[in-house]
């Protein structure tokens, strides 16, 4: 009995070590491959350079960083309100049986491969933006990018992709708010709307917030879907209908044919991406702590 | 999309290797059947030169090594000029070029073999009124000097330029032949492609973008041209395999192997393999135009 427990304990320990070592190895590998270019080219030149032209030996990734951040921000602007209201609707308003149906439909969204999202975006979304939104925008600004390959297209697709994460995690947070809170609020004469907005949401705040962080992480790291629909133009986007290139898309697109220095530069993009995601996570966790503290 | 292409590529590789394997078994049997047939020999072949030819050489070499177990083929880059220098210095057995020989290079070369042709079709959206462009016009569209279709005989609409990703071989060939690639004073190559170009990661993606987006122009490997897009005439010549082979269609280039005065048995065997039906089939499967 005891010896079998020991074996299991060792097995679990090994799994933990394998996981930790893998992370360490990947990190070391990325940094080792990318650092030479960063030190040779200069970190500031690399991050704040406005031109990405590897053939000419010019490696400036600011347009890619701005592209990634604007697509992600757009996805959050669309995805957060939709996701949270959807979670509220499913838990508080819809009868449980109907909610289950909706819920499995939303969870199904998480199972669709990202290439399929990208293809949907390419065939449906990009032409839709080109045919319906561009003509409207052209009345205000005739020089606007007419192709539909845009930050907006990327943001909409990413918003759909992060929806399952935001909805299911927010739902868990809302469900775990004690029933007494609701009963007390209603007993004091608050309406259902007031109960939701003033009692339930504040109480579920930290869970909802972590759902947003996870969603954001997915949006920044997403490659395939965005690659197909944002146009991959390494140029600073000036409005939501401009094309843009992302950090991940550029790595995926150019790695296969890249020469030695170009390849190192792509790994250096990986380092920057790594740092951006770490920073965002730290900021988000700090904010979450502050939010959690204020609610008590 | 990319994933699918990769899958396709590996599928193609598997098929190619399978084919080569089957054929090599066949040829081995033929060898042993003919009395006095050449026995397999040991040897190492070194190829140096054009990086554009390199991927094709690698596939061909893999097939050749499969065929002749005892031989290895070493493929190095360096550029077309380097290919000539390498055979002159005796460092390589075969020099690879992705352009015609220059006059001053001819004295250093004993024999040249055109192994394949590489052609690039210029494509526009099927609704476009434009049917013909000159190389100069194409260059100026891609460098962003010409911005409206009306400047080249089309409707009054802004041109949307579609290009391939940095490092792509098709992009490399296109910018080199059309002159979008220039050199600065110190001899560094400068790619002048406009920043306002949509970038698509594969021939298929360029094709579907051009097919579905009005007022677009793009370029694809000639082998991928079909009815979904409109192929343009260049300098009045239709983009076709015949016109590439007759050198009438200008956005094309030959892939050439050159050898010096002394050619090892192994190098000759490799060149014979490349020019054989199996080798030329590999050429075709990789999207280039076979010459035999």
What would you say this structure looks like, in words?
The complex is a heterodimer of chains A (296) and B (292). With 296 residues, chain A is mostly helical. Chain A has one domain (2-295): MetI-like (MetI-like fold). Chain A is built from twelve helices and two strands. Chain A has helices spanning 2-41, 43-48, 62-93, 96-111, 114-140, 151-175, 179-187, 192-203, 205-221, 224-229, 247-254, 260-295; strands spanning 52-53, 58-59. Chain A has a two-stranded antiparallel ribbon with strand order 1-2. In chain A, a hairpin with a 4-residue loop joins strand 1 (52-53) and strand 2. In chain A, helix 11 packs antiparallel against helix 12 (260-295). In chain B, strands 1, 2, 3, 4, 6, 9, 10, 11, 13 and 14 form a ten-stranded mixed β-sheet that branches. In chain B, strands 5-12 form a two-stranded parallel ribbon. In chain B, a hairpin with a 5-residue loop joins strand 7 (181-183) and strand 8 (189-191). The chains are: A mainly alpha (296), B alpha/beta (292). Chains A and B meet through strand 1, helix 5, helix 10 and helix 11 of A and helix 1, strand 8, strand 9 and helix 6 of B.
List keywords for this structure.
A: 296 residues; MetI-like fold; B: 292 residues; alpha/beta; D-Maltodextrin-Binding Protein, domain 2; 2 domains; two-stranded parallel sheet; 9 helices; 37% helix
How do the strands and helices of this protein lay out in sequence?
The complex is a heterodimer of chains A (296) and B (292).
Chain A: H1 2-41, H2 43-48, E1 52-53, E2 58-59, H3 62-93, H4 96-111, H5 114-140, H6 151-175, H7 179-187, H8 192-203, H9 205-221, H10 224-229, H11 247-254, H12 260-295
Antiparallel strand pairs in A: 1-2
Helix pairs in contact in A: 1-12, 3-6, 3-9, 4-6, 5-6, 6-9, 7-8, 9-12, 11-12
Chain B: H1 2-33, E1 43-49, H2 54-67, E2 71-78, H3 80-88, E3 94-97, E4 111-124, E5 132-133, H4 135-142, E6 160-164, H5 169-178, E7 181-183, E8 189-191, E9 198-200, H6 203-212, E10 216-221, E11 230-231, E12 233-234, H7 241-245, E13 252-259, H8 265-275, H9 277-285, E14 289-290
Parallel strand pairs in B: 1-2, 1-3, 5-12, 6-9, 6-10
Antiparallel strand pairs in B: 3-13, 4-10, 4-11, 4-13, 4-14, 7-8
Helix pairs in contact in B: 1-2
């Amino acid at each position: 009995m005891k010896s079998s427990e020991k074996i299991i304990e060792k097995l679990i320990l090994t799994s933990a070590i394998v996981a930790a070592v893998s992370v360490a190895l990947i990190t070391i590998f990325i940094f080792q491959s990318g650092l030479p270019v960063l030190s040779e080219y200069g970190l500031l030149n690399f991050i704040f350079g406005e031109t990405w032209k590897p053939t000419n030996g010019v490696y400036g990734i600011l347009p890619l960083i701005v592209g990634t951040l604007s697509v992600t921000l757009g996805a959050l602007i669309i995805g957060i309100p939709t996701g949270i209201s959807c979670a509220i609707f499913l838990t508080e308003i819809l009868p449980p049986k109907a909610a289950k149906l909706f819920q499995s439909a939303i969870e199904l969204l998480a199972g669709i491969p990202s290439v399929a999202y990208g293809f949907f975006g390419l065939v449906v979304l990009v032409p839709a933006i080109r045919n319906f939104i561009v003509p409207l925008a052209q009345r205000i600004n005739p020089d606007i990018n007419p192709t539909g390959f845009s930050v907006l297209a990327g943001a909409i697709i990413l918003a759909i992709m992060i929806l399952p994460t935001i909805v299911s995690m927010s739902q868990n947070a809302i469900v775990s708010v004690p029933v007494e809170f609701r009963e007390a609020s209603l007993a004091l004469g608050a309406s259902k709307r007031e109960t939701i907005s003033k009692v339930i949401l504040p109480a579920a705040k930290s869970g909802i917030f972590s759902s947003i962080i996870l969603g954001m992480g997915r949006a920044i790291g997403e490659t395939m879907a965005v690659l197909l629909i944002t146009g991959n133009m390494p140029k600073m986007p000036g409005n939501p209908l401009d094309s843009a290139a992302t950090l991940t898309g550029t790595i995926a697109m150019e790695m296969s044919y890249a020469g030695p220095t170009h390849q190192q530069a792509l790994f250096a993009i990986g380092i920057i991406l790594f740092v951006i995601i770490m920073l965002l996570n730290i900021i988000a966790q700090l904010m979450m702590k502050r939010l959690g503290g204020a609610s008590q | 999309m990319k994933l699918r292409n990769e899958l396709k590529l590996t599928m193609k590789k598997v098929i190619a290797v399978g084919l080569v394997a089957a054929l090599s078994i066949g040829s081995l049997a033929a060898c042993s059947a003919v009395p006095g047939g050449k026995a397999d020999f040991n040897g190492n072949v070194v190829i140096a030169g054009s990086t554009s030819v390199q991927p094709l050489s690698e596939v061909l070499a893999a097939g050749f090594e499969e065929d002749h177990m005892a031989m290895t083929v070493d493929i190095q880059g360096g550029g077309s000029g380097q290919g000539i220098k390498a055979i002159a210095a005796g460092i390589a057995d075969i020099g690879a070029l992705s352009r015609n020989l220059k006059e001053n290079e001819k004295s250093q070369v004993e024999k040249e073999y055109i192994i394949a042709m590489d052609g690039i079709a210029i494509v526009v959206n099927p609704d476009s009124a434009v049917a013909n462009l000159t190389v100069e016009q194409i260059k100026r569209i891609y460098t962003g000097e010409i911005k409206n279709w009306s400047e080249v005989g089309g409707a009054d609409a802004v041109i949307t330029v579609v290009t391939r990703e940095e490092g792509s071989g098709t992009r490399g060939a296109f910018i080199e032949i059309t002159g979008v690639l220039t050199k600065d004073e110190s001899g560094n190559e400068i790619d002048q492609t406009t920043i306002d170009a949509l970038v698509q990661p594969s021939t298929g993606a360029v094709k579907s973008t051009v097919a579905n987006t009005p007022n677009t122009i793009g370029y694809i490997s000639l082998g991928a041209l079909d009815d979904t897009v409109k192929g343009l005439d260049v300098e009045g010549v239709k983009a076709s395999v015949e016109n590439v082979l007759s050198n009438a269609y200008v956005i094309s280039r030959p892939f050439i192997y050159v050898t010096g005065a002394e050619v090892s048995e192994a190098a000759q065997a490799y060149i014979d393999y490349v020019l054989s039906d199996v080798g030329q089939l590999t050429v075709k499967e990789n999207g280039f135009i076979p010459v035999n």
